[in-house]
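Why do we bother with holo predictions? Because pocket geometry can differ from the apo form. Keep that in mind while you read this record for magnesium ion.
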Amino acid sequence: MISGKKGSSLDRALGRVDTLDATNLANLVQRLARERSFLETIFNTALEGILVIDKHGLIEYANLASRKMIGLKDGDLGDLTLWRMIPELRSSLGLEEGDRLQSSVSSRELELAYPERRYVRLYILPFEESEDSEEGEARFVVILSDITREKQSTEEFIESEKVTSILLLAAGVAHELGNPLNSITIHLQLMERQLAKANGTAASDRIASSLEVCLEEVARLDGIIKNFLEAIRPQEPDFQTLNLYEALEETIEFQSGELEDRGIKVELEAGSEHPVVRADKQQIKQVFFNVTKNAMEAMQPGGIIKVKVESNDERFYLRFGDSGSGISQDNLSQVFQPYHTTKKTGTGLGLMIVQRIMREHGGQVGIDSKEDIGTVVTLEFPKQNPKFKMLE
Ligand code: ADP
Ligand code: MG
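The structure, written out:
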């Protein structure tokens, strides 16, 4: 119905709307109404929630799926803001009452309590308005995907079958490597013993020192494999009382060499409150490491990473802002996918690990980005991990 041909004849009719007589106008209105109901049907069949909001968050359009997800009634359009329906979204986006939405792309994971408990991933994308639209009329498309299943799955830490299979493959390879390494070690030790029996000539001394090097290298390979297996195997977090700010400082200290090499500075801004939560220190440091690493890799020498700690009654927000390349709309929906990378030597596992660890801590990762301007990665920590709330 909106094929190119008909669309363009409609466009032509619209172009000379002021010259049309009453009958033709009525025809045109009818055609527009049909067009509209056709599009409505498509949008209402979609499983994803689709909303259009203005820069104040006012909901102008909501398809059927989105109404169900956030509990919006028919008469609510044009009256309610998205913040009203999803209160924690505004603080997650770093907006104060009355602030306008920025024209960046954003991604958040949210827990909706009403009308039904479910988890959604939400994307906010600036609306491409036609060129003649007025300045300041910015609008945004909001897309909501239900991720309840994904979150509730018992093997939540394994994001997809791809990860499972690659983990199995990697574990298999590592295991296979273990056998020849063992055998090499044993033979090297045998050679060492035999050499010890042959008296210390200059030649045997040289061989002995070569053997020693071989043994060290084998031990090193063994270590690499063990670390690798540890890194890819999800582990149960060891929850301890942790000051996130201190963990952040330690991570930045650990990265100081690379930061210096790249000519990048980090500015830390502590909030008014100590961000103390129950968390696994090693895992949280891994999260900070992955996020700052990405920020570094997105920037040129001279860049600055600004990390800010904020809080409200329920949550701490750690915002990692960089002035790097930014993330495109297309790329944004894929950044958490395993093996999705835009880098030559990237692994595409960094953000997936970040997401997994944050979820295990009852938190989430949010991303706001503007191409060529930069990216803000927001780590949200609940002040009280829901896992512990339940135990109490
Ligand atoms: P990798 O860093 O190995 O590519 P990640 O999972 O850490 O894998 O990141 C996935 C992709 O997300 C990156 O390749 C990049 O395109 C994008 N990305 C993540 N963080 C940033 C950032 N701070 N700035 C720009 N792009 C980013
Ligand atoms: Mg990375």
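The first strand starts at residue 49 and ends at 54.
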